[in-house]
Predict the structure.
Amino acid sequence: MIYLKLLRESYLFAIKELVVNKTRTFLSLLGISIGIFAIIAVFTIFDSLEIQLRDSINSLGNNVLFVQKWPWSTEGNYPWWKYVNRPQPTINDLQSIQERSTLAEASALFIGKSKTLKNGNNTIEHVEILGVSHDYKDVMKVEIDKGRYFTQSESNTGRQVALLGSTIAKNLFPNENPEGKSFKIGGRKTYVVAVLEKEGKDMFGNSPDERVIVPLNYIKSFINLHRSGNTIVVKAKPEVKNEDLQYELKGILRAAHRIKPGADDDFAINETSIISNSFDGFFQIIGGIGWFIGGFSLLVGGFGIANIMFVSVKERTNLIGIQKALGAKNYFILTQFLFEAVFLSLMGGIAGLFIVFVLSVGISSSTEFPMTLTMNNIILGVGVSSLIGLVSGVVPAIKASKLDPVEAMRST
């Protein structure tokens, strides 16, 4: 009961400071509010950015590998001359993987080409046409809104059929259902068999909504597969590690290409972790900037809290003397002032968090960037502000607890 009474009295004293000395308290807590706002706002913006970025990367798949001519790299000096003469992955490579791999669940080859689409008076230029082998749907996400995927026969014979992204479908066939209708890809008549679900743009500016998917054997009729950016994507079986699949694929492709022992590979096996890991250092730097910016405001706010507490000790010296004369222990006085310092600082921190929350809601509702104040950042804001209050209130609290009761009661 005595501790509950102590907390209650400390709470009442803290509220009194807020009410009686509004201007002084406001100015002192402003530093804490600005500091918490600066730190949490930076973390919230970049946490939201990181979530979006990693979601975009993960949409490619965490358990897929990409066999390509060029290796992915985030280093500044990219040795392109080592890879320029490499061959493009071929259908024969895909067949070797499908026949010999025991760790792959599915694999497919795809290639992109920019073409002009036309339907009557509706023309769209520079549209990405993605030619895919039949198993593409088993490796990458293909969400169909209307219609169906290619049949095995359509894929094998290279029928002139296509899956349209939602934006392409809307622009080519305004106010009508495009399913079953025809349009032209670079002058070639093509039939729509499906419209894909709307997905929107990822953090890299790419959107499946602005893409057309056709069978690989169809796109072969107007592009040269040996001079294009082919990619074989391989999905690992459940519980199979990417490292194990990569090791197996390397052996299969080296055998298929008849590469001698000790000779360098003439292919690259990439995975999404290469991209995501490259951003780790970037976000660490941003986090450091957030602490640096907010640190100065927190330092000023900490001195403000300490100033409030020193003034509070001076104003309540007589009361402290009476409390001690009635038997109050030093720890009782110490705890009372520490609680008050933490409470005041916490109010400033909550104010800063509230501003960040309002900012998050405003940005999310007015832009396409979903900004979210996460629970981790709320806990961080509350924890930092409480710690600042605790540190700032230690010296004044110790001073109050060590006052001589007789001398304290004589003060005015």
Q: What stands out?
A: The CA atoms of residues 114 and 128 lie 5 Å apart. The longest strand covers residues 104-119. The beta strands are 64-68, 104-119, 122-132, 144-147, 161-164, 182-185, 188-196, 211-215, 231-236, 268-270. Residues 22-58 form the longest helix (37 residues).
